[in-house]
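Usage example:
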Amino acid sequence: MIELENVSKRFDDKTVLDGVTARIGRGEIFAVIGPSGAGKSTLLRLVDLLDSPSGGTIRIDGIDIHAERERSLSIRRMMGMVFQKPAAFNTTVAENIAVGLRFRGAGESVIQKKVEDALDMVGLAGYGEQRARTLSGGEMQRVALARAMVIEPEILLMDEPTANLDPVSVEKIEELVLQINRDHGTTIVISTHDMYQGQRLAHRIGVLMNGGFAQVGSPREVFTLPANQDVARFVGTENVVEGVVVAAEFGSSVVDVGGVRVRARSSFSQGEEVCLCIRSEDIRIAPAAGARGLRGGNILPGTVASISPRGPFSRVTVDCGFPLSSVLSWKVVDDLEIRKGSPVSASFTAESVHVVRATRN
Amino acid sequence: MIELENVSKRFDDKTVLDGVTARIGRGEIFAVIGPSGAGKSTLLRLVDLLDSPSGGTIRIDGIDIHAERERSLSIRRMMGMVFQKPAAFNTTVAENIAVGLRFRGAGESVIQKKVEDALDMVGLAGYGEQRARTLSGGEMQRVALARAMVIEPEILLMDEPTANLDPVSVEKIEELVLQINRDHGTTIVISTHDMYQGQRLAHRIGVLMNGGFAQVGSPREVFTLPANQDVARFVGTENVVEGVVVAAEFGSSVVDVGGVRVRARSSFSQGEEVCLCIRSEDIRIAPAAGARGLRGGNILPGTVASISPRGPFSRVTVDCGFPLSSVLSWKVVDDLEIRKGSPVSASFTAESVHVVRATRN
Amino acid sequence: MYEIIEGFVEAARLIVTLDPDVMAIAARSIVISLTATILATLLAIPLGAAINFGTFPGRKSLINLIQTLYSLPTVIVGLLIFLLISRVGPFGSLRLLFTPTAMVIAQTVLILPIMTGLTISALSGVDPVVRDTLYSLGATRLQFLVNIMKEARFAILATVAVGFGRAISEVGAAILVGGNIAASSFGSSTRVLTTAISLETSMGNIPESIALGIILLAIALGVNLAITTVQHR
Amino acid sequence: MYEIIEGFVEAARLIVTLDPDVMAIAARSIVISLTATILATLLAIPLGAAINFGTFPGRKSLINLIQTLYSLPTVIVGLLIFLLISRVGPFGSLRLLFTPTAMVIAQTVLILPIMTGLTISALSGVDPVVRDTLYSLGATRLQFLVNIMKEARFAILATVAVGFGRAISEVGAAILVGGNIAASSFGSSTRVLTTAISLETSMGNIPESIALGIILLAIALGVNLAITTVQHR
Amino acid sequence: TTSDPTPAEKQQLRIATTTSLYDTKLLERLTPIFEEQYNAEVLIVSAGTGKAIEYGQNGDVDVLMVHDRAREDAFLADGYGVNRRVFAYNYFVVVGPESDPAGIKGLQPEAAFTAIRETGMTDGSDVVFVSRGDASGTHSKEKAIWKAAGFNYSADVQGSGDWYQEAGTGMGATLAMANEKQAYTLSDIGTYLAYKGDLDLVTLVDEGDILLNIYCAMQINPEKYSDTNSTVAKDWVNFMISEDVQKEIASFGVDQYGQPLFYAARNDWEKIGVPQAEVKDPIP
Ligand SMILES: Nc1ncnc2c1ncn2[C@@H]1O[C@H](COP(=O)(O)OP(=O)(O)OP(=O)(O)O)[C@@H](O)[C@H]1O
Ligand SMILES: Nc1ncnc2c1ncn2[C@@H]1O[C@H](COP(=O)(O)OP(=O)(O)OP(=O)(O)O)[C@@H](O)[C@H]1O
Ligand SMILES: [Mg+2]
Ligand SMILES: [Mg+2]
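Running the assembly step on the lines above writes:
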């Protein structure tokens, strides 16, 4: 449905996008994640014809949208966009939502019905007559969503649509997005800095970094098998450490990390500089004494370097020559009597170590 | 340092705040959390003298700030504010950050130094000469923080300062906030919809709901002992179920939840309508067969109703007469071969059940 | 000073007695200046929008030129129109000289630059995200224009107020192309409030001048009340 | 039509030969109108800011009144000032009538309403968050004013352009309080470009009128280039 | 069946006149009578003499009414105008402050001008002469007086000092200015009388042939502009010299000012030195 081919965008002397390539299928939910300033908004704006690429082609249903100037209205009308900082028209909430329908010549009764429904869906029933300029940040974001949604576009572009929302509202909006996708087969491109949102919603995630997609894949792929150490760090793999392969055979290798040896599954050969990505939830912490053997796995002794809260969990960082973090529930931390300085052992399987080639930044 | 006494705010016929009372101590980090539209921004604006309360008093260091009009400049100069939707002055990034310093008559060299440092601290070194209007959403949010920070206010008010940031930037900003608080003893009031952020940063959290603080307490209190079921739902206690106390003695009670009996620690007496709050991480799921006995605890048999991803975990909802959700790592879900429809048992201790009086909405 | 009070008394008298001459003059002023303002608005808005939202070479110079034309003296506008419509001019055969139509044309030309310029300024003040939102909602050119006007309505109507004010208060062009004729039929006359004020002043009838000035301002007040009503909606 | 070309030729001749009479008239126009514009700006900006950001009863009526005064005919302004400063008027002892000072006063009064009104319109276009941010950064009143002006500079300078345009192009007040005097000393003369244009026109010297008009526009262009340079910074 | 007699369409007559004549409101008195008699609508445009003549040259009007013999002659000679008729005359007056610092009261115009110039040019004097300076009929007359007094206008008068100031405006404004500056000026009698109430200026010189001011009306040459309303134009000019109107002119202003503003030209052609045909013979 949407094809990005080598798309680039320069502002003056600053290159923001540089050869972005991807295909987004009809009915797919595609999440764009990436650090602040990576060009997520820029990319969505290019797709929505709000800005022109400096190079490359964007095709929708095979049509080069930036080339066909006379068709831009009908192309634009296929799409709805929710802006990162949505702007309110200086009128009521209901009128704000009605605008797109009015543009399409919908009748007054249809408009009224759809607007009511939309307000209800985004949890703002009864706000119709309030002046949109007086809405709170989160309320406005939901109005913007409703505004883009009522026109039932084939493609819905959403630029961090829940950035200003509380978790309860986020959940509601996410359900709504899934429902729209399910009921209307709407293709959805969503930019988000909330990776778990990407995971909850998206069929595929594209990680935008340094001007292009560093990785495109299913949420699980991106989270468990990040393409490189930047992606790994970005998707929240707490433990990303560099090392050198010292032994390798039969898809299994031993990596030296600052003197500590770690077993991992990988096909890198001896002498290669690699990077180990270990998700914190794959690491078990046990009191130093009671460490059980783990066949073909790693048991690294160390001392607790820090304990910090992380939602209903605690993040425990163990110094085993290099720092390794794990996440434990508060209860476990209490039960095991883990304190800063406690001698513990951190254990994890060779399979849970994802090895990528080390890249220099 | 900051005392809110029965503060209320009405817009036309809409009452947003209605008797907000709290005290925030010098050097404290106080987080205001609450649903979208609860009045978080409104409250911060009242403290920053940007709007006048409809009733009640706001005192800083004992001074009724809205009464002393001629001192408002010096009061305002004690404070720095980061707006939810920060506005960029139409000039360079560096000039945007310098404004507050210029107002205070700082010298050119001091300004330059401080601006550079601030840019560096928020991770925008090198952006000084870019026009602020062209910044991305997250970049602008960081500039706004830098702008409020350079004037080294005694009180820093931040309205969802990381809403548009990716996790890596969030972490950086949070460290910065903690550092400012630590190094300068700055009193910080932060509104956030990210409860974990509240937890990571704040000494105390106020939950703003229905016009007032439903609860004010330490992060742990708010998360584990929510004051009522609204707060419980809001802070992400997945399992909030209503029931009636059918037996009670010695601070222990049995609650009937739609026919299922649940043991809990509580001092409610028989016949009272209550609400049980059980955090999902306190619930263990085991194959139906292998459920171990749990002294004085609850073991509820049921079938798996749904499994949905939640970050690196899966959220498993079990129907045991009423739905109970737990969070398991992907690995455990695979290992235990839990699928939709699997017969399982959910177990949790009586201590992990937090009982509050049921409120009607 | 005494003349000012006399002027107020005279104004009151003229209004209360509905002096037919004065009423006709006032009506003519309103018709001519409102027509010119409407025409100029209809031209200035699309023009201003095209310049503000367009990207073409020479855009800045064009804006400069327009701003420069704010300084166009009414007498020069009058002269140029005069040369065009005088019998020996290219449009002489239309016999427009000394007609209200000519005055409408002259006033339209006079206020067009300032209205276009202020429209540009009004539109440039609209949040770019509002603009993008309209585009992304699939606005046609016309829908875009209408909606962006609604957003900028305060400034746009301020522009209309400026245009009308300039049109109804100008005298140089009106006198040159209109001739300040007091004829026996309404349609042949070209005497409007400003030209009448000029005449009274040149004859030394200061209270009468001031009375007419007050009537003119009363009309302007009415028009502005209408404008403000729309503005604050 | 031929007169227009003649006008250009004449304008070129006058400029190239630096015709001393014309240069003096042009210089006087610039001095008087720029002074009036600067004075009016200095008054209009704080006034406009006070009205825009203030909350007081009658605020809307005041804005209405100001907009109404856009329609103040220059002749009426001239007359009122004339009555105040003529020998028998309250300020007669200052002997200001028929001096350049009187013209500056008249033009200042004339453009003050429009400049105040457009300042209000310009300021009301500034994002309220910008305003709040300035307050929250601890701006004093003056710092606030300066910075809000910087934000609204495009519209504020457009206002200045309008004010200057109106000042330099008006003739009614200039002739009434200035008198269009051509005396042999620069300071006693009150002939400016517009009054000279009027005179030439009344004498039927169309090419000369147009030439003077072109010189006036050339001056306006210069001033506007300066304004635009600041505007786009 | 009966058909209504459609009234003949009203003819429009466009007249360009000098402001000083227009401002006396004489024409305002006469036009309704003419409109009634000739079923015409009269449109009068008043402008400076130069501008009025230009309207005539362009054929934008049908009749021209001015008071500047020299320029009228040129206009006729160039073929723009035909059939000039003189309908009224009066005298210019030299007015000035009652104190009369140049001591011109009762002098002949030439002598008076000379005296004003002499005193004006001496150091420290506060004698000022305000000139119309707008190439109007009045200004032409003033220049003629300077010439008759033996001065070269542009060299000896204009720009010879701050005592001589050109107003460059209408008569009324010039009088106001002279009043303000307590200066001398040359005025037509009509405007002076109209303004007299507001002025501290008094008539100092009102006798002398050179002060004669002759008003005429003429037709725009229909051969030059074929679609001018030559018939009504002719009617107007003839109307102005008709006996009834001449009487009207002779008595105009007496009730308001206690003295007439104009003298009828009809019987004084010799006195004012124009051919008899120009005052008496209707255009055929
Ligand atoms: N007109 C411009 N001139 C210069 N740089 C620009 C311009 N517009 C955008 N940029 C830069 O382009 C980069 C990408 O901006 P964009 O808004 O696409 O980022 P983003 O990925 O959406 O970030 P965020 O998550 O913070 O919203 C930013 O660094 C921004 O500063
Ligand atoms: N001028 C106003 N008129 C009417 N209602 C208003 C006005 N200003 C704010 N409100 C309402 O007040 C409520 C509180 O707004 P506020 O911005 O304080 O919410 P918030 O807690 O910051 O929400 P969010 O998390 O979405 O930013 C909202 O429902 C908003 O619609
Ligand atoms: Mg963005
Ligand atoms: Mg808010």
